[in-house]
């Protein structure tokens, strides 16, 4: 083989290794730039919204999502406290990842020999909703954590919570606090009562299921528990 052929072969080998690394770096740069953009501008859609809309349109081609952005001050403090109490009690203190909750989730997954829970914070859930799929894997969890650190670096806690409450899924095709409040209670997000807010917060881990099973005993019991915890939830 000629020297030119050997050099060309080495270049190909180099790019086999460097190519994927470059793609990973470019992906992180894209995520970071989008996080910077959304620190000032409200996202009009998310990866989670796009996935759900695509699924809905498989059955109904003209299906539409229900979502209406409302600023932080027009979301009831009841809902803010309920979501923190239910989803992430240490939201105001951690750096995007609750390491103790993550360790407990890891131990639980090992006992079950599969990923049954992720110990995600509100920041991590926002990272997943904005950019990632709903699949469960340690690779996706790692990317979720990286984006969570980006969010915490660039945004205030209040901005993170504001975006999360506006893009979280509360039912099939129902996204954000305003759409959820009107869909379930025929009121605005600003006027949610304590029990109403607690029930919406409890639905978050599995909203499409609880949309169909609104009278489940677990939902009622968990709602009562969150109502009792809400007064101690620290708002950003």
TrEMBL record:
Residues 65-230 form the Glycosyl transferase family domain. The keyword Membrane applies. SUPFAM superfamilies: Lysozyme-like. Coiled coil: none annotated. It is found in: Cell inner membrane. InterPro entries: Glyco_trans_51, Lysozyme-like_dom_sf, PBP_transglycosylase, Pep_trsgly. The chain crosses the membrane at residues 12-40. Its EC number is 2.4.99.28. Keywords: Cell inner membrane, Cell membrane, Cell shape, Cell wall biogenesis/degradation, Glycosyltransferase, Membrane, Peptidoglycan synthesis, Transferase, Transmembrane, Transmembrane helix. It is a single-pass membrane protein. It holds the Pfam family Transgly. Signal peptide: none annotated. It catalyses: [GlcNAc-(1->4)-Mur2Ac(oyl-L-Ala-gamma-D-Glu-L-Lys-D-Ala-D-Ala)](n)-di-trans,octa-cis-undecaprenyl diphosphate + beta-D-GlcNAc-(1->4)-Mur2Ac(oyl-L-Ala-gamma-D-Glu-L-Lys-D-Ala-D-Ala)-di-trans,octa-cis-undecaprenyl diphosphate = [GlcNAc-(1->4)-Mur2Ac(oyl-L-Ala-gamma-D-Glu-L-Lys-D-Ala-D-Ala)](n+1)-di-trans,octa-cis-undecaprenyl diphosphate + di-trans,octa-cis-undecaprenyl diphosphate + H(+). Pathway: Cell wall biogenesis; peptidoglycan biosynthesis. PANTHER family: BIOSYNTHETIC PEPTIDOGLYCAN TRANSGLYCOSYLASE (PTHR30400:SF0), MONOFUNCTIONAL BIOSYNTHETIC PEPTIDOGLYCAN TRANSGLYCOSYLASE (PTHR30400). Belongs to the glycosyltransferase 51 family. Peptidoglycan polymerase that catalyzes glycan chain elongation from lipid-linked precursors. This is Biosynthetic peptidoglycan transglycosylase. The gene is mtgA.
């Amino acid at each position: 083989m000629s020297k030119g052929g050997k050099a060309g072969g080495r270049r190909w080998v180099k790019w086999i290794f460097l190519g994927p690394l470059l793609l990973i770096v470019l992906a992180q740069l894209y995520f970071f730039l989008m996080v910077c953009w959304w620190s000032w501008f409200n996202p009009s859609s998310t990866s989670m919204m796009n996935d759900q809309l695509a699924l809905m349109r498989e059955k109904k081609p003209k299906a539409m999502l229900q979502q209406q952005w409302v600023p932080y001050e027009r979301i009831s403090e009841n809902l803010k406290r309920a979501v923190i109490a239910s989803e992430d009690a240490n939201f105001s203190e951690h750096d995007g990842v609750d390491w103790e909750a993550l360790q407990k989730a890891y131990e639980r997954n090992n006992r079950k020999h599969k990923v049954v829970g992720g110990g995600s914070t509100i920041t991590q859930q926002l990272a997943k909703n904005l950019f990632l799929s709903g699949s469960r894997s340690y690779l996706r969890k790692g990317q979720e954590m990286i984006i969570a650190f980006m969010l915490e670096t660039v945004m205030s806690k209040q901005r993170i919570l504001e975006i999360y409450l506006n893009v979280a899924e509360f039912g099939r095709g129902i996204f954000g606090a305003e759409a959820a409040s009107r869909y379930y209670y025929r009121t605005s997000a600003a006027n949610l009562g304590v029990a109403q807010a607690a029930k919406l917060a409890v639905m978050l881990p599995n909203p499409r299921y609880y949309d169909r099973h609104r009278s489940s005993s677990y939902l009622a019991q968990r709602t009562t528990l969150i109502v009792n915890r809400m007064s101690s939830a620290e708002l950003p």
